[in-house]
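Email to the structure team, subject: BfmA/BtgA family mobilization protein model.

Hi all, the expression group asked for a predicted structure before they design truncation constructs. Nothing fancy, just the C-alpha cells so they can compare against earlier work. One-line instruction: predict BfmA/BtgA family mobilization protein, return C-alpha cells.
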Amino acid sequence: MDKGYEKERFEGLKIKASVAQRFRRYCGKISKSQSMTLLVMIEFFEDNGISPNESMGPHIQTLEILIKKRINGVIAILKDIEKSQTKPTVAMMQSLFEEAEPKNKPLILEKKKTDDSQPKYRERNPSNL
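Reply from the structure team: attached below.
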C-alpha cells in the first residue's frame, strides 16, 4: 500500500488500453504503484513549472549557453586578477628574497691555505733508488 494514502478510496480513470499498458510498464520500471507514479509525475511538472506540451530542448540549450557565458566571465575575472595582482606580487616577493640571501663569507675559524705550504717530507721516487 502507498504510505500516507492507505485510507483513501480508489477512483477510476478512463484512458485508452494502449496508454494503460504503457503506463503499467513504466510503473513497473520505477517500482511504484500506479497512483504513486502518477502523483510523482504531477509533482515533477508542477515543481519545475514545465508543461508536458512544451519541448524542453530550447530551455535546456538556453540554460547551457547562459552557464557557459557565466563561466567564461569568471575565467576572465580570474585571469585579470592573476595578471594585475598575483604576478606582480610574486615578482616583488622574489626580488625581496633574492636581495635578502646572505653572501657566502668564509668562517672566522677557517684556515686559508697558501701556496707557500710545502710538504715537509720529500716523496721518494722509486726510479731514483
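The chain has a mean pLDDT of 80. The chain has two domains: 1-54, 56-98. Ping us if the truncation boundaries need rechecking.
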